[in-house]
Amino acid sequence: MTVRNRIFITAMLLCHLLVWPCLVTSQLRPAQPLPSEEVTIEADQQEKIGEIYNLRGHVHITFREFEIRADEITYNSTTGDITASGNLDFNGGPNDLHIKGTRATYNAQKETGKFYDVVGTTGARVRGRHVLLTSSNPFAFSGKVVEKAGRNRIIVHGGTVTSCTLENPKWTFNAEKIDVVIGENAKLYHSTFRLAKIPIFYFPFASLPVERLGRQSGFLIPSIGQSSRKGFILGESFYWAINRSMDATVGAEYWSRRGWAQHGEFRARPTELSNVNVRYFGVLDRGFGDSRQNQGGQDIVMTSEAALKFGFRGVADLNYLSSYVFRQAFSETFTEAVNSEVKSTAFVSKAYKGYYFNALGSRYQNFQSTNRGDLITILRIPSIDLASVDQKLGRSPVYISYDVALQGVSRREPTFVTNNIVGRMDLFPRGAIPFHIGGWNFRPELALRNTFYTQRKLPDSGVGTPADEAINRRAFETSLEIRPPVLSRVFDRQILDHKIKHTIEPEFVYRYVNGVDNFSRIIRFDARDILSDTNEIGFGVTNRIFAKSNRVKVECAPLSETSRFEQRGWTGTEEEPKDCGAGVREVFTWELFQEYFFDTKFGNALVPGQRNAFTTTAELTGIAFLTEPRRFSPLVSRMRIRTARNTDIEWQFDYDSPKGRINASTALVNHRIGDFFVAGSHAYLRAPGEVNVSTPTSAPIEFNQFRWMVGYGSPNKRGISAAANIGFDVTSKFLQYSAVQTTYNWDCCGFSVEYRRLALGSVRNENQFRFALSLANLGTFGTLRRQERLF
């Protein structure tokens, strides 16, 4: 027994027999509760006069979905009026409204009232010192007076709102009046945004989300930055939630040194299986340098995809770039700035049991320099493609396939212009008879190819001249692929508790093409037009090393959603079952391949002293290594090492054995230890120079660059995270770009700052200072975009 003994409301019957009021310790239900509702009262002391309850000492009233705690409460059971004071605590409602204050007047029937000296939250259930989040957007507020104007509406007078804890919030919005619709949004009137209690911005009106229940139209947080080329940057955007499946964002930025930049994005999802996304970026440039060169322009990107009737699929990826100078001058990253290609493709396709149909239109542009008009444009409009995978011919051992293209193509460059539409019809049927003998696999193949063009090229000392004369290209092809049995060995000695298996997979491919006697008169549009005669054999070997863990616990992936719940006896309370398999991983792969050419002139298609690109060489390596007759191709090596999930090493190189040099080498390294990570790459290319009429053998083009990045942390990590990267051109001996970025995240916000330098020669040398302030459940303020982060 305690000092404060509690008895039930039945004790009230004894009190009513007395003349004077009776003080009791009680847990009661009033005689006249709210209509068809129950009210429960707990208190150390209670006094009842008529319908008025005077409650003192640890008072706790529960009604509907709400509860009130206070030191003293007066309650009218008829009208529902409540007056509370001392350690007020109000909780409940569908959005878990929690209010702490000094005093309050409240009507339990109308669910309206006023609270004084308030600190409160929504979306968080408070139980003593424990807080359970019940919303993706917990919302905190404080105010001198908080008026509850309805079931889901409160008005804060002279207060603050934040998503931080109110004891020591990192950021707040202070406002004269805050109109909050719980579960939707909060409207702020005459507010100031404060960071660590320091006023930063004043907003006559602002709207903040209180719950992720839908998108709302409105102005976004302004963007501010600094650049050595653009000057001071100040921008604003407007977001328009058109409907449930469609929205748009439009905005502009003022650059003090250059002018105005505009940007916009439109997104739509008309159906569950379709989407449309359009992005626009443009600059009205005042000019740069002493000559005031105008580098302004526009960049438009549209992507769309839809599942059509009868199993068809439609895709559009359209790009428009006004000039290469514009991209180099205003792209935010080095990779975008140096990309000289613009590709647009739209197609409708259907696949059925290994048969394919495509109706396609495309445009390819490659800017050769920053001079206007110096570009190559290739169109394919219209284009009908039919193809198939190998299909067995009845019960015979023969497999057949085909590739048919009916296309309208054109090519435009400063010194070479074809007709607007050049007809091209390509027929390519193939047949193969694969068979196996004693573990050896053989695949002989026979193919015929016929390509018809409505326009041809007349060779001359330059790139040629187009002529309105039809031309037909015929070719006979045969090949034989041989794969001997795989050699393998499992080693008895284990390494780090792993069994090791090594396999060697050799292969031989013979290929013969004959009949292409008009290669120099074929106009080049794409890969279909570089077919030449050849007589060659290719030989290669692939080494693989597998590791199998002997430990009981092996790294494995969770089951799919379908198989996960098919596990019998799994209730969801114990550890989720996993499909671990055998625990075998391929940790090392090394492929080597080389070709020997019996026909060193490729049917007289090879032109000495210039780059020659043929089908057989383009499929082998990306470097056009043929500048003269030769027997051996470069040795192509592809190596990959992946000893663990956090380590990845790749090295690809082409070694030109006849000339004793490396034509191409690309190395990639990625490694992570906990929160630390490092990534690096080295790219070296040595390609023959462009064709020069006066000097047929021009100087080779060398590309030698390093990329490195080191860092610590991640975007959502509490505390500090940082990363830095550089790009260095060894050939030119200068730093192309560099960036240093750091972030510090608290519980409800994070601050990021970045210094970035871009060096693009005479077009652009820029120092950028960018930052971003991320506010939990609100958005990001600044010019550092999430997709441009280093970590």
What number is the mean pLDDT?
A: 86
Are there runs of 5+ residues with pLDDT below 50, and where? 1-35, 552-582, 691-697
β-strand amount: over 45%
Helix content: under 10%
Largest sheet: 26 strands, antiparallel, barrel
Number of helices: 5
> How many beta-strand elements?
51
Give the distance, in angstroms, between the N- and C-terminal Cα atoms: 62 Å
Structural class: mainly beta
Rg calc: 37 Å
Shape: elongated
Task: Please tell me about this protein's structure.
- With 791 residues, this protein is mainly β.
- The chain is built from 5 helices and 51 strands.
- The strands form 5 sheets. The protein has a 26-stranded antiparallel β-barrel. A 13-stranded mixed β-sheet has the order 1-2-3-4-5-6-7-8-11-12-13-14-15, with no helix packed on it.
- Strand 20 (259-268) and strand 21 form a beta hairpin.
- The longest helix has 7 residues, at 324-330.
- The protein is elongated.
- The two termini are 62 Å apart.
- Mean pLDDT is 86; it is low at 1-35, 552-582 and 691-697.
Q: Could you give the topology of this structure?
A:
Elements: E1 7-8, H1 12-16, E2 24-28, E3 39-49, E4 52-63, E5 66-76, E6 81-92, E7 97-107, E8 112-122, E9 124-127, E10 130-133, E11 139-150, E12 153-162, E13 171-181, E14 185-195, E15 198-209, E16 218-219, E17 223-227, E18 231-243, E19 246-255, E20 259-268, E21 274-285, E22 297-307, E23 313-321, H2 324-330, H3 334-338, E24 341-352, E25 355-367, E26 375-388, E27 391-392, E28 399-413, E29 416-417, E30 422-432, E31 435-437, E32 440-453, E33 456-458, E34 465-467, E35 471-483, E36 487-495, E37 498-514, E38 534-549, E39 557-558, H4 561-564, E40 578-579, E41 584-597, H5 615-618, E42 635-644, E43 647-656, E44 661-673, E45 676-687, E46 701-712, E47 719-729, E48 734-745, E49 749-759, E50 765-775, E51 779-782
Parallel strand pairs: 1-2
Antiparallel strand pairs: 2-3, 3-4, 4-5, 5-6, 6-7, 7-8, 8-11, 9-10, 11-12, 12-13, 13-14, 14-15, 16-18, 17-18, 17-50, 18-19, 19-20, 20-21, 21-22, 22-23, 23-24, 24-25, 25-26, 26-28, 27-28, 28-29, 28-30, 30-32, 31-32, 32-35, 33-34, 35-37, 36-37, 37-38, 38-41, 39-40, 41-42, 42-43, 43-44, 44-45, ...
